[in-house]
Amino acid sequence: MQVQSVSIRLNLKDGSSNDLPLVGNLPWILPKDDSVDLALVPLAPDPNIYDLRPIPDSLLATEDVIKKESITEGLKLVFSGFFYQVPGLEQIQPILREGIVAMMPDEELVTTTGKKGKVYLGEVHAFHGNSGSPAFVDVGGIRGGVFKVAVDYRLLGVVSGGYGEGEENTLVLETPLASKPGNSGIAMIVPASALKALLNDPRVVAIQDAAVAHPAQPSKK
Fold first, then answer.
1. pTM
2. HEC profile for the chain?
3. Per-residue confidence of the chain (221 residues) as pLDDT tens digits?
4. Where do the domains of the chain lie, and which CATH numbers do they carry?
């Protein structure tokens, strides 16, 4: 697809927002596994200017964390996404939605890329604007024989798509961008392990190392 320009809108700490106009396409880094519906672009807005909250590696629900925390079906699921009907005049207004982890399949499913891969399913209604939303699972309560009083969230993965109800109640996999009336309420989530693998990709690590060796000058509003 030929992309002529990209615009990224970010909230500022002064209560306003700002667009980052970028001419041409971005240097997207795609996973080597073509079943994974993720993409990464090297971009580091100034945290002193932009209202950002990074997600540390310690919050990623990787395979070892899933086993340790006994993460399974039925746990509370929350994600934050873009409500395009109410984009916000001064700042972006995110929307929060919740549900439960519906299925953590042992076998591979067809993903939104059309390839078979590992994904999770959540009983949570995802629609246009929710693609790419971070999905968090609450590991509080009794987990692995240990009782946690407060809520304790881990990043289960990234919302990729969902199942729409087609003719005769058949379920059709589609992305939130292409979703039509009849959403079944089942969302597809790309696992955090796939996200971590992309972040640790040698191509990404090389860019990070170069940025550390030659830091850019602080951006201005």
1. 0.84
2. CCCCEEEEEEEECCCCEEEEEEECCCCCECCCCCCCCCCECCCCCCCCCECCCCCCHHHECCHHHHHHCCCCCCCEEEEEEECCCCCCCCCCCEEEEEEEEEECCCCCEECCCCCEECCEEEECCCCCCCCCCEEEEECCEEECCEEECCCCEEEEEEEEEEEEECHHHCEEEECHHHCCCCEEEEEEEEEHHHHHHHHCCHHHHHHHHHHHHCCCCCCCC
3. 677 778 889 999 999 999 887 777 888 899 999 999 999 988 888 889 999 888 999 999 999 999 998 999 999 999 998 887 888 889 988 889 999 999 999 999 999 999 999 999 999 888 877 889 999 999 987 665 666 666 789 999 999 988 876 655 566 666 655 555 566 789 999 999 999 999 999 999 999 898 888 776 655 54
4. 55-213 (2.40.10.10)
